[in-house]
Design a protein that fits this description.
Length: 229
């Protein structure tokens, strides 16, 4: 490995290297040779285990592997690499455009329409109802007279707010063709129940109507929360 040389002024040598100067000979220039040491397998482990480096590793690990933090970036997928990263983008002559008609099953429940139910149709099982119950907010599964129903309960500010909520529900389901049972209970409670009477249980129509009711604004009807300073 090549060595390097440094030249110092004689006036600086007593300060830098007081014990290295001979007392009997004045020097005009002193030349010092040194060989820089690069990390080798033998000393690399001790270098990487230095306390300051360990602290930076811990900080990097706490920030998601990067001292600047994790900005949400990800490695590209193999398919993205193979595609050349958007060589065929919108505007190129060889870009393929397709108009896809959405599948009704891909639509949200509130966007679907109720369909006529035949009396010979089998009602939903409890497992099927529980699966669809995840798609509506605030509704629960209840059993009454051996029939499964879904039920939602609103506690409102006062009796007048209960009347207003029933009016809003009516406007939403007026043209749907499938209606819930609505109960205005004293002093400030509204209860809605849905089931399909013709089959003696639940059908998809019940969950479609429940999803439409979920979209009704009720924030101005419920009691206001107190905020303490």
């Amino acid at each position: 490995m090549a060595s390097s040389s440094l030249c110092f002024s004689p006036s600086l040598l007593p300060i830098l290297f007081p014990s290295s100067l001979p007392s009997q000979k004045p020097l005009s220039c002193a030349t010092l040779s040194f060989t820089p040491t690069l990390p080798t397998p033998s000393n690399l482990s001790s270098f990487s285990n230095h306390p300051s480096l360990r602290r930076k590793k811990q900080q990097s690990h706490a920030l998601g592997g990067d001292l600047l933090g994790d900005f949400g970036a990800r490695d590209p997928f193999p398919a993205e690499i193979e595609s050349g990263f958007a060589e065929n983008v919108l505007g190129n002559v060889d870009t393929e455009h397709r108009i896809l008609i959405p599948n009704i099953l891909a639509l949200s429940l509130s966007q679907q329409k109720c369909t006529p139910i035949s009396a010979s149709q089998t009602p939903m099982t409890e497992d099927e109802a529980k699966s669809l119950l995840r798609k509506v907010v605030g509704w629960r599964l209840v059993e009454s007279e051996g029939r499964l129903r879904i039920q939602c309960l609103w506690r409102l500010r006062d009796f007048a707010c209960g009347v207003e909520l029933i009016n809003r529900i009516y406007k939403v389901i007026e043209d749907v063709g499938h209606y819930p049972n609505l109960h205005l209970e004293q002093p400030n409670q509204v209860r809605a129940e849905l089931w399909t009477a013709s089959i003696g249980g639940l059908s998809m129509n019940d969950f479609i109507v429940a999803a439409k009711i979920d979209e009704i604004k009720t924030s101005d009807l419920v009691p206001k929360k107190r905020v303490w300073a």
